[in-house]
Amino acid sequence: MRIILKFPTWASMPNEAEVAGVDYVIQWAKKRKIKVTPTHRDGVGYDLKFEYPDGSVEKIEVKGSRKPHAIPDMRVSEFEKFELKADYMYVVGNVLAKGNERLYRIPKSAIKAEHLSLRQTYHIRRFQGRKNMEKYLFKDRH
Length: 142
What we know:
It is built from two helices and seven strands. By secondary structure, it is of the alpha+beta class. The chain has one domain: 3-Layer(aba) Sandwich (Trna Endonuclease, Chain: A, domain 1), CATH 3.40.1350. It has a five-stranded mixed β-sheet with strand order 1-2-3-6-7, with helices on one face. The protein has a two-stranded antiparallel ribbon with strand order 4-5. The radius of gyration is 17 Å and the shape is globular.
């Protein structure tokens, strides 16, 4: 069974690598008899919850990368006082190269505050949605 993730409309549009990364980790976990619960809609700051057969639980943040050895930028909401909210960050490198994916499991303790650098972006809300964007549609699609 394949789980299709539906992200909330207010969230920034997830990119193909991000969605593919989460899907890859879900399938990987299920093959190992790990119960997976998506948590991306809960606002908890991580993507998945793993429940192992022995009863232990892990909070998982997933990053999908088109590159084999790179971690995409993290969101501020994924941290609490410079500490990852999840117990582990799973990075799926080469996520769009089917059969050549590389799965990394990075513990929270390995990510130190000095490893982080804050970047700022602007989110333009006014133009979101078909109604607001339609008048700016480029008519010549060639």
